[in-house]
């Protein structure tokens, strides 16, 4: 992060405004259905959050407050995790969850 960007984040924190957009999402992979929150810096429009994540040069997506269901074993108990990272190549579907 360059100095100007760091200063913008400090200014936002000092004024008690969130520095990140968050969105609840559902991710489907071959084996799992995953629900949780993704976060992006507040540098653009919120409606671009998911597309920005998918089109970034990063190979993994970080997800917080996660619920993991096993698609092949629906009777298996849903697992909860504070944080996971998912390889973008394993994602079959990613969509927002409207609350």
Characterize the structure shown.
The protein is α+β, with helices and mostly antiparallel strands and 99 residues long. The longest helix is centred in the N-terminal third of the chain and has 12 residues, at 3-14. The chain contains 2 helices and 5 strands, in the order H-E-E-H-E-E-E. It has a 5-stranded antiparallel beta sheet.
What order do the strands of the largest sheet run in, or round the barrel if closed?
4-3-2-1-5
N-to-C terminal Cα separation, in Å?
Answer: 33 Å
- Number of helical runs? 2
What is the molecular shape?
globular
Helix-strand pattern, N to C?
Answer: HEEHEEE
- Which stretches of 5+ consecutive residues score pLDDT under 50? none
Output the structural class: alpha+beta
Examine the secondary-structure arrangement and name the CATH architecture. Answer: Roll
Assembly state: single chain
Number of domains: 1
Radius of gyration: 15 Å
Query: And the CATH topology?
Result: SH3 type barrels
Q: Could you give a short description of this structure?
A:
The chain has 2 helices and 5 strands; from the N terminus they run H-E-E-H-E-E-E. It is of the alpha+beta class and 99 residues long.
Describe the secondary structure blueprint for this structure:
Blueprint: H1 3-14, E1 20-29, E2 32-41, H2 49-54, E3 60-70, E4 79-87, E5 91-96
Features:
five-stranded antiparallel beta sheet, 2 helices, alpha+beta, 46% strand, 99 residues, SH3 type barrels
